[in-house]
């Protein structure tokens, strides 16, 4: 049996993947999509998850595919978990936090 190589086998590969993921979210059209979702949800966390996670997964498809992750919401989770193996590196630590915030940005409750 051939051994299965981890999707992010080295720190350098992890850095490259994390940078590409951040860049995907920073593309103007993608950034606008995510901002519109946040406005649309207005503090409704369940609505946020229904809209945000699929959109974020779609934005990351190119990165997920390139590094051998499934093109699913689980693939996104696996990707961030894989990055977390490298959080001792300051750059990865910062990029991983940024990516997680894309999936779980601060949601302020509607005033009563």
Describe the fold and architecture.
With 112 residues, the chain is an all-alpha fold. The chain has five helices and no strands. Helix 1 runs parallel beside helix 5 and helix 2 packs antiparallel against helix 3. The longest helix is centred in the middle third of the chain and has 22 residues. The chain is globular. The termini are far apart. The model has no long low-confidence stretch (mean pLDDT 85).
Q: Which band does the percent of strand residues land in?
A: under 5%
Number of strands: 0
Sheet/helix structural class = mainly alpha
Number of helices: 5
- What are the segments in which pLDDT stays under 50 over at least 5 consecutive residues? none
Order of helices and strands: HHHHH
Please, what is the average pLDDT?
85
Helix content percent band: 55-70%
The major β-sheet equals:
none
Described by the principal axes of the CA atoms, the overall outline is: globular
Distance between the termini: 60 Å
Rg for CA atoms? 15 Å
């Amino acid at each position: 049996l051939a051994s299965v190589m981890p999707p992010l086998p080295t720190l350098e590969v992890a850095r490259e993947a994390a940078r590409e993921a951040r860049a995907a979210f920073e593309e103007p059209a993608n950034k606008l999509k995510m901002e519109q979702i946040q406005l649309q949800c207005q503090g409704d966390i369940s609505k946020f998850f229904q809209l945000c996670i699929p959109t974020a997964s779609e934005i990351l498809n190119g990165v997920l595919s390139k590094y051998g992750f499934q093109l699913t919401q689980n693939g996104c989770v696996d990707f961030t978990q894989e990055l977390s193996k490298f959080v001792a590196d300051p750059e990865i630590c910062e990029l991983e936090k940024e990516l997680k915030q894309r999936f779980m940005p601060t949601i302020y409750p509607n005033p009563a």
